[in-house]
């Protein structure tokens, strides 16, 4: 479900579950975290490119796998928090290629990147409030990326916005017209960053991470706790049951 390719000092980590629109399972997120840590330990890697196979970058959690099992949903949230923290703290720049859509947990991954490429019509957002789940787990990195008032709007509003609108708000840094052009643009950016003096780039990123508290576990832990507190409530169970037509 996770594939790693390294070429010319660029580590490309690929979400490889296209038949499920790269929907995230705990195992998939844990594999992502492990892959990122392995590449972070490789001094020859100067840039990480996070991308995905298929027409959609990531449709969020695999809710069908979690239906009726709150332990799986909790594990998804815990694993997402770990993956986002690990990506955000990567010692060199992280570029994300988000074609087609980045929804819920997929959108959380965008906030962990330094540069994000999307197409104009991509669907982006956090619709999980509609299933009785708090998207607070995404709040720390989202607030690091866009201003507080916009973070509030995105987390409270379950509606999706386009890639073009996300670009206007700063969640997407680079915009292309067509989904097929996203990866090429992201690869070009990765090559540009990998070609810069590595020590200066790494020190700059480390300082930026200090300024925005990326290395502080407390905001991430508190945000995760808020999301976990909404798992398994009557509201959450009812909404998930309705989602899958489960009357039991």
Task: Write a short abstract of this structure.
The chain is α/β, with parallel strands linked by helices and 248 residues long.
Detailed description of the structure:
- This protein has one domain: Alpha-Beta Complex (2-enoyl-CoA Hydratase, Chain A, domain 1).
- The two termini are 32 Å apart.
- Strand 2, helix 1 and strand 3 form a beta-alpha-beta unit.
- The longest helix is centred in the first third of the chain and has 19 residues.
- The protein is globular, with a radius of gyration of 17 Å.
- The model has no long low-confidence stretch (mean pLDDT 94).
- 47% of the residues lie in helices and 16% in strands.
- The protein has a six-stranded mixed sheet with strand order 1-2-3-4-6-9, sandwiched between helices.
- It has eleven helices and nine strands.
- With 248 residues, the chain is an alpha/beta fold.
Estimate the strand proportion: 15-25%
Give the count of structural domains. Answer: 1
Q: What's the CATH class, please?
A: Alpha Beta
| Adjacency order of strands in the biggest sheet | 1-2-3-4-6-9
CATH topology: 2-enoyl-CoA Hydratase, Chain A, domain 1
> From the 3D coordinates, which CATH architecture would you assign?
Alpha-Beta Complex
Low-confidence stretches: none
Specify the number of helices. 11
What would you call the structural class? alpha/beta
The residue fraction in helices comes out at: 40-55%
> How many whole angstroms does the radius of gyration measure?
17 Å
Q: What is the arithmetic mean of pLDDT?
A: 94
Distance between the termini: 32 Å
Molecular shape: globular
CATH H-tier superfamily: 2-enoyl-CoA Hydratase, Chain A, domain 1
| Main pleated sheet | 6 strands, mixed
**Number of beta strands:** 9
**SSE topology string:** EEHEHHEEHEEHHEHEHHHH
């Amino acid at each position: 479900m996770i594939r790693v390719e390294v070429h010319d000092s660029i580590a490309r980590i690929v979400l490889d579950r296209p038949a499920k629109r790269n929907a995230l399972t705990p195992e998939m997120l844990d594999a992502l975290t492990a892959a990122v840590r392995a590449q972070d330990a490789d001094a020859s890697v100067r840039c990480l490119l996070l991308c995905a196979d298929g027409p959609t970058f990531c449709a969020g959690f695999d809710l069908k796998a979690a239906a009726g099992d709150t332990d799986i949903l909790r594990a998804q949230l815990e694993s997402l928090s770990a993956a986002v923290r690990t990506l955000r703290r990567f010692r060199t720049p992280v570029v994300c290629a988000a074609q087609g859509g980045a929804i819920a947990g997929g959108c959380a991954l965008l906030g962990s990147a330094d540069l994000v490429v999307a197409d104009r019509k991509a669907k982006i957002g956090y619709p999980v409030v509609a299933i009785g789940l708090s998207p607070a787990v995404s709040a720390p990195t989202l607030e690091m990326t866009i201003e507080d008032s916009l973070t509030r709007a995105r987390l409270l509003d379950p509606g999706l916005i386009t890639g073009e609108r996300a670009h206007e708000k700063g969640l997407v840094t680079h915009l292309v017209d067509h989904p097929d052009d996203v990866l090429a643009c992201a690869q070009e950016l990765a090559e540009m960053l990998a070609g810069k003096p590595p020590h200066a780039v790494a020190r700059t990123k480390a300082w930026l991470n200090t300024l925005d508290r990326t290395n502080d576990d407390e905001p991430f832990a508190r945000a995760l706790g808020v999301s976990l507190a909404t798992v398994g409530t009557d509201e959450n169970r009812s909404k998930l049951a309705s989602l899958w037509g489960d009357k039991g």
